[in-house]
Amino acid sequence: MPDIPHALIIIDVQNDFCPGGALAVPEGDAIIDGINALMPEVGAVVLTQDWHPADHSSFASQHAGKAPYDLVEMPYGTQVLWPDHCRQGSDGALFHPRLHIDPADMILRKGFRRQIDSYSAFFENDHTTPTGLEGYLRARGLTRLTLVGLATDFCVNYSAQDAAKLGFEVSVRLDLCRAIDLDGSLDAALTAMGSAGVNLIGR
Ligand code: VGL
Ligand code: ZN
């Protein structure tokens, strides 16, 4: 890897978000070869891993009378309820077998607290509890970030907006992301990322 202040942040390329998984993103596995090819061009590779306890509060199964994709109000705001996914230690939580994981300098797990979800790689869904990634990147002098992965409209979107607000120079390679797209969530995410100053590449 070249010694440049540029990190590739690869969001949640895990079995459960790929075809056949519990929360499959359409074509979620179509981005993997392109992501692998980008790794040697950056100064650092970071992987994030959605990593939930079996009774996580973002799971519809934990809310009587609720179904996946219903909305509930949590103390930190509105939360989409999901099918059970990325349970700690499950095969679904593993990185997709075609993703190169050896080049990763850092693997960041998120969503491990039962009572709060964490879409962003930087803050949990209360927008204040840090994951520690900001400190890691700053300590290494990594100021330029390229984000790729799953899903464009949830974890990539929240991560990119937070990174831009924190003052990083952020690009999202849309060709190396795929979306869930619930009720216009992709369009809303693209607008919000653009307003936050994220450079959207391959739109
Ligand atoms: C994600 C929904 C629930 C994501 C994670 O990686 O975008 N989406 N957990
Ligand atoms: Zn999740």
UniProtKB/TrEMBL annotation:
InterPro entries: Isochorismatase-like_dom, Isochorismatase-like_sf, Isochorismatase_Nicotinamidase. Keywords: Hydrolase, Metal-binding, Pyridine nucleotide biosynthesis. It holds the Pfam family Isochorismatase. Coiled coil: none annotated. One of its GO terms (molecular function) is metal ion binding. Gene3D superfamilies: Isochorismatase-like. The keyword Iron-sulfur does not apply. This is Nicotinamidase. It comes from Thalassovita taeanensis.
